[in-house]
């Protein structure tokens, strides 16, 4: 059965990459959560998509130039007034969470976690070892997938922990046309942009990897990918995918 992961929590309805959004994804019954990480000036691993605070918080500046204490001064919720569930008093209190805080939130729930390293602009020296240490200490027995567009990062994770599950993020089909190159990499899975998978109905059958597809929000696309039995669907609206999956189970 295709797994359903909440993209940055519940990005379509709640502030992305926040504990609030992750809690909502858990309430919906997701099989996993996808999130993004950077490293602060003082070496803390924080959960945020961009290299800068500007878009998703009421702060400004690069994550790498700020300490965790400085980052925690800003709201990670009050930039999302356009979302349907916005509550000023509650959302304004949200802060950029650390990876440790997210793992502590997830502790009671046996769901997967896809950690995307945002290391293609700044490599963040030592980030892989820090993440391995945090996950080893607070991750429990859950399945953790380490993904990135930046291949050296996930290869470092594999070197640090040979048992690590690593997935290469792919947003064009160039690499998919080089199967020998991919087969020589110690990859566990491929995380592929939805348009690539939807444009080739045989792609999933032809690839010898579990396929995770991002970011799938439209009903028709969800149904097509469920029919292809892809390994995982990542969505801003995981509740939609879960509903479609449950409906499909009634007729299959």
TrEMBL record:
Species per Swiss-Prot/TrEMBL record: Heyndrickxia oleronia
GO BP terms: lipid metabolic process
Pfam families registered for this protein in UniProt: GDPD
UniProt-recorded Gene Ontology molecular function terms: phosphoric diester hydrolase activity
PANTHER family recorded: GLYCEROPHOSPHODIESTER PHOSPHODIESTERASE, GLYCEROPHOSPHORYL DIESTER PHOSPHODIESTERASE
Domain GP-PDE: 2-245
The protein's name in its UniProt record: Glycerophosphodiester phosphodiesterase
Highest rank taxon of the organism: Bacteria
């Amino acid at each position: 059965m295709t797994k359903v992961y909440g993209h940055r929590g519940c990005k379509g309805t709640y502030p992305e990459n926040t504990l609030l959004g992750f809690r909502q994804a858990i309430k919906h019954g997701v099989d996993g959560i996808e999130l993004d990480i950077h490293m602060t000036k003082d070496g803390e691993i924080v959960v945020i998509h961009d290299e800068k605070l500007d878009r998703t918080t009421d702060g400004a500046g690069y994550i790498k130039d700020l300490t965790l204490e400085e980052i925690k001064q800003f709201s990670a919720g009050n930039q999302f007034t356009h979302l349907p569930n916005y509550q000023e008093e509650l959302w304004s209190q949200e802060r950029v969470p650390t990876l440790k805080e997210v793992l502590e939130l997830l502790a009671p729930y046996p769901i997967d976690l896809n950690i995307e390293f945002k290391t293609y602009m700044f490599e963040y020296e030592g980030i892989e070892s820090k993440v391995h240490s945090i996950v080893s200490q607070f991750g429990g027995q859950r399945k953790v997938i380490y993904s990135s567009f930046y291949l050296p990062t996930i290869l470092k994770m594999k070197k640090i922990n040979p048992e690590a599950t690593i997935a290469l993020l792919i947003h064009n089909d160039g690499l998919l046309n080089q199967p020998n190159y991919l087969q020589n990499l110690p990859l566990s899975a491929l995380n592929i942009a939805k348009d690539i998978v939807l444009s080739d109905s045989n792609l999933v059958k032809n690839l010898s990897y579990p396929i995770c597809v991002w970011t799938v929000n439209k009903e028709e696309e969800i149904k097509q990918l469920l029919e292809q039995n892809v390994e995982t669907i990542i969505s801003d609206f995981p509740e939609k995918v879960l509903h479609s999956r449950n409906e499909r189970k009634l007729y299959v």
